[in-house]
Amino acid sequence: MTARQRPRRKRIHLAAQVPGVDNTSRPWIEFASFEHLARTAERGLFDFLLLADGLRPREHEGRIDGVDVVGRPEPLTVLGALAAVTDRLGLAATVDATFNEPYELARRLATLDHLSGGRAGWNVVTSSDAFTGENFRRGGHPDRSERFSRAAEFVAVARELWDSWTPDGVSRPFAHRGRHFDIAGEFTVPRPPQGHPVVLQAGDSEEGRESAAATADVMFTRHGTLEDGRAFYADVKKRLEKYGRTPDDLRIMPAVTVVLGATVAEARERAAGIRRQQISPQQALRTLERIWGVDLSSYDPDGPLPEIDPVPEPAIAQGRPRHGDSVAVAEKWRALSKEKGLSIRQTVIEAGCGRPSFIGTPEAVAAELDACVRRDAADGFVLVPHLTPGGLDEFVDRVVPLLQERGAFRTEYEGATLRSHLGLSGPAGKG
Q: Where does the record place the Luciferase-like domain (predicted)?
């Protein structure tokens, strides 16, 4: 095979997420913290920085969860400020499609895309729990299918609004009449520099996979291991064809954590220490309650797991997502607890409920990340630092140079827009 015939090496896409809820984070209201993370991500040549969000503090049995982050500012406002202190880094906001309206949000996203020179992204989410609706006149908590249906139409309407201006600056009236929205008028903001801001979406469910294949530019997932990742990657990518899209039209990027050490043993010890800090006795019980679906406050976190089975329709959850098949998870955790003689807290620490982790030396982590992308388990990764705002620095300083040496990551930005960083030719469905 000649050099001209040899396929181009698949490169890694990297992004960073600012946690919206994280018991190791300090109050999220100081701009200096956001600026530090953004500058570090841009120094590391990341595709984008994602701000997570929630429209109400997490609650548990009618009380605000004591481990929830305090002070959660509106993300698009923060990204507007970050646009002024960064030059190339993509700026993505998590914005709820259940309790917002298309015209208002499309206008704000188009404005950010103009102010940043084409670097805006929108992580589309639906309300995750019944508590949130109480903050809004609409109230209540639509069922899952209704939330997905509204979100899909919401994205479609936003794209109609962005397309209502021609590329050469001519405004045209718009009109949309659908199940959830009935609006008509004229959009106030010219067509965004990217055509459409990049649309991001998370979800491992059947509905989430299908929705991402139809409408998303970037998809988040929890599948970070090689074999699980390859199966998920292949499944989602093959769904694109039915929507007239190619595998290169969607980037799949698992959210992961990274813990480094001079040796593997040191990295593992650091990771264990981080988990111990993150999972307090109180947090361990609440994690278990989200699986079992009942009040477990009378249980000793240093004692054994409950012998009772999880309930199928827990009132305690009020719409909050559970950790997959609760019965299967409970059985798995009981087996782990019995095998290693672990208490409730030790089991939660050992098993975890969060995102995949890459733990090891910088060289080992760089090799593992590269292997996952080269073997089609992912197109890249969204790093979620366990400490803020300095939790990204070590990865940028110690792992990024190794990825560059391997030819697995860019050595400079090759474009100015988020869409160009991701290697996307146009908005989803536009080619």
A: 26-373
